[in-house]
């Protein structure tokens, strides 16, 4: 497997010392560095995380240990064997372009690490960067902007349809103290289509933080499928934020498996700005051990006849805590809008804690909206039925969990990624029922 390496070591110094990066970005970083510590944390309903160690690393305090082989066993486990349009690997502070189809460049598609794109395409990046995540909006955004040490820029021109997925692997290098603040910017122009696959993992067990921020801009008629499998390590405290905006008749489909081992906030938000635009957010999560996970999902209906749906299912093991917020807002004059949400949690331990918090804000009469939420244990009647057919209690619980989470898994386009999700579920359940599955 041949790699084209783009080193971010030099680009880190460019952030601080060089005038090659555009002024708008340097100014944004300088303002964020000066103000982040005085800004407030974003308000997450039913979640207190002020004491979480999210701001322990800065670029100036980090050390870089380049992997002897970026395609080590951990990275190879994350790579799919499916055919892809492009594959990008982020390993610590390094970015490796593993593969990109030749016809993409011929069509005007841009896939670059973010700092290179800032130098090569400053006007294009400036038009869209920070359009859904303002640098000074809160403490998370400002810290991330000030100490950003990697990222990716994907640009799909008008009327270009990419049939194969674009695959990104994010490997956090926690063998040393090292910031992991990555920014992904995806721009899908008018009537374009793409599928983006992202997977994350951690190497090493040093206690590091991570801020992974993503912006998705779907222009009129664009169709974007965003698939993520988050699996950062137990020693990582993470804030994962994915925000998107849809214009007329555009669509963003979010599908995520929130499987980090450490304390995590996953914040997903879509503004349906255009008429007839749509967005579905499908999330599964398993919390185990003593970890805390918060899944905070918001949808804002602005355009006429915009349609939004939140579908969240989670399983809680051991002494873990898992909370689902589902927030739907329909603004005034968003006539014909539709906002639906469902959040359900299954608890497999008496010591676990689960919360679902459905919220609807509606400022228009001619709309439809609804919500469903539940927190409970395995259905005893379903469990009895399966056990009456000869299954053990452990196997019966496993089948019920698989069915409970399966609707999100089936939205994943890659068979291998679906299998990896199932294996990840199995690994978490093995910790709960060692040796039985």
From TrEMBL:
GO terms for biological process: iron-sulfur cluster assembly. Residues 91-166 form the SUF system FeS cluster assembly SufBD N-terminal domain. This is Fe-S cluster assembly protein SufD. The gene is sufD. It comes from the Bacteria. InterPro entries: Fe-S_cluster_assembly_SufBD, SUF_FeS_clus_asmbl_SufBD_core, SUF_FeS_clus_asmbl_SufBD_sf, SUF_FeS_clus_asmbl_SufD, SufBD_N. Residues 176-404 form the SUF system FeS cluster assembly SufBD core domain. Belongs to the iron-sulfur cluster assembly SufBD family. NCBIfam families: sufD. SUPFAM superfamilies: Stabilizer of iron transporter SufD (SSF101960). Pfam families: SUFBD_core, SufBD_N.
């Amino acid at each position: 497997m041949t790699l084209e390496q783009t080193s971010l070591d030099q680009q880190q110094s460019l952030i601080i010392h060089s005038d090659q990066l555009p002024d708008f970005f340097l100014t944004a970083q300088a303002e964020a560095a000066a103000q982040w510590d005085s800004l407030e944390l974003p308000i997450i309903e039913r979640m207190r995380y002020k004491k979480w160690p999210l701001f322990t690393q800065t670029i100036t305090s980090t050390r870089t240990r380049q992997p002897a082989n970026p395609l080590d066993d951990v990275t190879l486990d994350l790579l799919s064997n499916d055919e892809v349009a492009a594959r990008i690997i982020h390993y610590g502070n390094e970015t490796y372009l593993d593969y990109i189809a030749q016809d993409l460049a011929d069509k005007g598609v841009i896939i670059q690490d973010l700092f290179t794109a800032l130098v090569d395409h400053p006007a294009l990046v400036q038009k869209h960067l920070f359009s859904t995540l303002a640098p000074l909006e809160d403490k998370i955004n400002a810290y991330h902007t000030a100490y950003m040490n990697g990222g990716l820029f994907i640009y799909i021109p008008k009327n270009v349809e990419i049939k194969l997925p674009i695959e990104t692997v994010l490997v956090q290098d926690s063998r040393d103290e090292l910031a992991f603040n990555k920014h992904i910017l995806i721009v899908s122009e008018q009537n374009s289509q793409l599928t983006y696959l992202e997977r994350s993992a951690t190497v090493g067990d040093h206690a590091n933080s991570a801020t992974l921020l993503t912006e998705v801009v779907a222009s009129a008629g664009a169709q974007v499928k965003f698939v993520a499998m988050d699996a950062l390590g137990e020693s990582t405290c993470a804030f994962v934020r994915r925000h998107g905006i849809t214009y007329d008749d555009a669509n963003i489909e979010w599908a995520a498996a929130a499987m980090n081992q450490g304390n995590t906030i996953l914040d997903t938000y879509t503004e349906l700005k255009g008429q007839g635009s749509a967005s579905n957010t499908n999330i599964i999560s398993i919390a185990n051990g003593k970890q805390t996970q918060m899944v905070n999902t918001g949808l804002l209906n602005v355009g006429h006849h915009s349609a939004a749906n939140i579908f969240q299912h989670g399983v809680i093991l051991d002494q873990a805590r898992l909370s689902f917020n589902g927030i739907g807002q329909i603004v005034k004059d968003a006539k014909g809008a539709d906002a639906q949400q469902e959040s359900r949690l299954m608890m497999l331990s008496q010591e676990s804690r689960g919360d679902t918090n459905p919220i609807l804000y509606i400022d228009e009469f001619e709309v439809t909206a609804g919500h469903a939420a539940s927190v409970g244990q395995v259905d005893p009647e379903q469990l009895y039925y399966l056990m009456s057919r000869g299954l053990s209690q452990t196997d019966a619980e496993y089948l019920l969990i698989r069915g409970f989470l399966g609707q999100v898994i089936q939205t994943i386009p890659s068979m291998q990624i679906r299998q990896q999700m199932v294996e990840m579920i199995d690994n978490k359940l093995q910790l709960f029922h060692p040796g039985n599955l």
